[in-house]
Amino acid sequence: MSKSVLTGQHFVNGDVACAEGAIACGCRFFAGYPITPATEVAERMAERLPQVGGVYIQMEDELASMAAILGASWGGMKAMTSTSGPGFSLMMENIGLGIITETPCVVVNVQRAGPSTGLPTLCGQGDIMQARWGSHGHYEIIALSPGSPQEIFDITILAFNLSEKYRLPVIILTDEIVGHMSEKVVIPDEKEIEIVNRKTPEGSKENYMPYMTGDDLVAPMAKAGDGYRFHITGLTHDSRGYPVLTPEVQKEMVYKIVNKIRKNRKDIIYFEEIELEGADFAIITYGISVRVALKAVQMLKNDGIKCGILKLITIWPFAEEKIIEICERVKGILVVEINLGQIFLEVKRCVEGRVPVKFLGHAGGAVFKPVEIIRLIKELSEDGKN
Questions:
Q1: 207-257 per-position pLDDT tens digit
Q2: CA-CA distance, 14 to 181, in Å (whole number)?
Q3: CA-wise closest residue to 173 among 147, 202, 199
Q4: Residues 6+ away with beta carbon under 8 Å from 136
Q5: Which of 19, 35, 374, 380 is deepest in the core (most CB within 10 A)?
Q6: How many whole angstroms from its chain centre is CA 355?
Q7: Other CB atoms closer than 10 Å to residue 271's CB: what's the count?
Q8: Residue 283: beta bridge partners?
């Protein structure tokens, strides 16, 4: 049996790095269906999982893939699937099932330009709001955005840890360029990788209640086949898991699902500040768009304009507090994303007119040029002088 962690330096693309991150933190089940540009995640898992005692299954479609990883999770395994926009749409019903049953798993969406079949081999960042609101009803979700093969390795581990800690599906929103970009990826020694495993129940198996929580609002999770008596349903349910179809139980259940994320926002929201100390202007961006923004910031510095970047790593829940705090320090904000304004509208909501906010976006298929960012930052600078 091969090593589960391929320690050392590797030259691989982002999809392969994602698969290696999953294996390194204990993922031993993958179910998926081939789709560009996510197929390489599945191919790598098909190769690697049998080497480490795991299970790979190619399902008939994305609906079945999502159902399979939920079942595997209840069987005690860390489970993952990967897809792109069309498949992500098909997964939404069962992502909702994962939310209401509080089932830990990881869903990787290697975004491409849409809608529908769109541009299968070209990049997009158009699934941001779908990740937040794609399934029906009231819930909170965790979605993370890597910007390089190294980051997707690291963020896949983070996604599993958050999923296990808070008992819910966690989404990785990468994109075609990050997925297909080949770079050096450093995989640390197994002892250096932080791994979080779900809480498991203690005490009487007969009295186990799968949704009985403590102060952290996260219930211990039993494994099917270990003798615990439990009932799992997509219907509104009580702490036993039994359907109770009343407004009172619906309120109790939904608020628990929502508040276990809302009350832990500070431990879930990750971001990186780049050159923001003393900056007059801020670029808010994520994923592959960060790379273009970095070049633009360097060029602006040469022109005497102090500009920094707020790099969003956690997309959902949204970093509202950090954006409000940045408003107190800068004269203007530019939002850069490969869609028509999904995060831009969230930023405007948080800013509430405190400073001017501009937007750079398009419908997908290519990254921006640094000169496009520079032009809009200079417009912000000139507007501030008038």
A1: 899 999 989 999 999 999 999 988 899 999 999 999 999 999 999 999 999
A2: 6
A3: 147
A4: 96
A5: 19
A6: 29
A7: 16
A8: 309, 334
